[in-house]
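Residues and backbone
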Amino acid sequence: MPDIDLGPVPAGSSELRGYLARPSGEGPWPGVVSIHEAWGLDPNMRRLADRLATMGYLTLAPDLYSDGGKRCVASTLKAMASGTGRAFADIAAAQNWLRSTPDCTGKVGVIGFCMGGGFALLVAPRGFDAAAVNYGMLPRHRDQALAGACPIVASYGRRDIANIGAARKLDATLDRLGVVHDVKEYPKAGHSFLNDAMGGPRPLRPVLYVTGFRPDAVVAEDTWTRVDSFFAEHLA
């Protein structure tokens, strides 16, 4: 399950890198583009990609910070806010890579975590077959951004200070747009509950923990069960 080089991406990264997690046995398998948190493609994100592979999905996690540096982080967040930019070209490149490989059935979903969850929402109308959104920020203009979206499964924590009321708003928007969806808010969960270890810079971890940015094994297991069922229905 190696790191791979996706090469230069027009309007994207000069040399896009990624992490490829392959299911055991022989393919082809449905594909999933996995989009990382704001902290980057760290060990937590690689383990989440590995978990998707054990569920039977050829999972490609592009490194949206491939060009490196703080300016790269800032431009990626700016792209999410504007709905356009290098990050979207990189995500599309990962999507196209999966669709073009013989190891993929041609069905491709997207999953995102934190910042990646925000991107997963924004690209849900862009040719994916299903999207899993985990504590992702909502688009500013929800009806416009999500019109024509693929089926969406979304998971939020009620104690997530970064996404207060997001589950209710997203559920109402998808109802209004007629998008197939499963949106759930977990009453006792905060942010980053799918991680199996604390993420972020080590000096910040005590603050993140206190503010609810921490793993929750019970909520994570329920979320993965829902994602697996949803993807099995829409990607198989």
The domain at 3-235 is CATH 3.40.50.1820 (Rossmann fold). The chain has one domain: 3-235.
